[in-house]
């Protein structure tokens, strides 16, 4: 029987994201006001076109601050995609769940060393999980993400028997 599951999570806006948004809006207002002033003074209407292009560019930059992550489990593979502004999708990583080594809550006290770490979580540590797996290209990879209960169950189904047994023992 095939194991297929998808989950979409939205990254929470951080203070840094809010500062970027304010700077974009302020910059957009200054540039647009300056170009409109130049259009009125000189009568050269091309400044209005440039002001309109600046507004479109500012909206494009603001929408780029919206980030979502999609977790896709297809049989024994976990794919994580990053979706930026609902217009651009980028595959972050694909992990073979049969090569998983550990699956635990995040943050951990004694975090094992990983050759690479993938941050694909909402930014809130609540309900965040850490998955460690051996990757063919990156070596030992740590993935920080926020799978819900259904996604966690789909992930655990594909783990090696030894890891699944250890996880069941730790719950008891």
In words, what does this structure look like?
The protein is built from 4 helices and 8 strands, in the order βααβββββββαα. The strands form 2 sheets. A 4-stranded antiparallel β-sheet has the order 1-2-3-4, covered by helices on one side. The protein has a 4-stranded mixed β-sheet with strand order 5-7-8-6, with no helix packed on it. It is α+β, with helices and mostly antiparallel strands and 172 residues long. A hairpin with a 2-residue loop joins strand 2 and strand 3. The mean pLDDT is 88. The chain has a domain at 15-63.
Task: Please outline the helices and strands.
Layout: E1 4-10, H1 15-42, H2 46-63, E2 67-74, E3 77-84, E4 88-96, E5 100-105, E6 116-120, E7 129-135, E8 139-145, H3 149-157, H4 161-171
Parallel strand pairs: 6-8
Antiparallel strand pairs: 1-2, 2-3, 3-4, 5-7, 7-8
């Amino acid at each position: 029987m095939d194991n297929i599951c998808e989950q979409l999570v939205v990254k929470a806006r951080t203070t840094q994201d809010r500062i970027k948004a304010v700077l974009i809006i302020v910059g957009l207002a200054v540039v647009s006001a300056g170009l409109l002033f130049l259009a009125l003074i000189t009568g050269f209407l091309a400044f209005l076109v440039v002001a309109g292009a600046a507004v479109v560019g500012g909206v494009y930059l603001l929408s780029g601050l919206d980030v979502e992550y999609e977790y896709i489990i297809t049989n024994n593979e976990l794919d994580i995609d990053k979706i930026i502004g609902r217009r651009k999708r980028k595959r972050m990583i694909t992990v073979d769940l049969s090569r998983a080594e550990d699956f635990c809550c995040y943050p951990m006290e004694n975090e094992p060393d990983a050759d690479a770490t993938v941050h694909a979580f909402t930014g809130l540590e609540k309900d965040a999980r850490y998955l460690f797996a051996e990757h063919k290209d990156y070596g030992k990879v740590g993935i920080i993400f926020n799978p819900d209960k259904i996604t966690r169950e789909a992930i655990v189904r594909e783990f090696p028997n030894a890891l699944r047994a250890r996880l069941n023992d730790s719950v008891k």
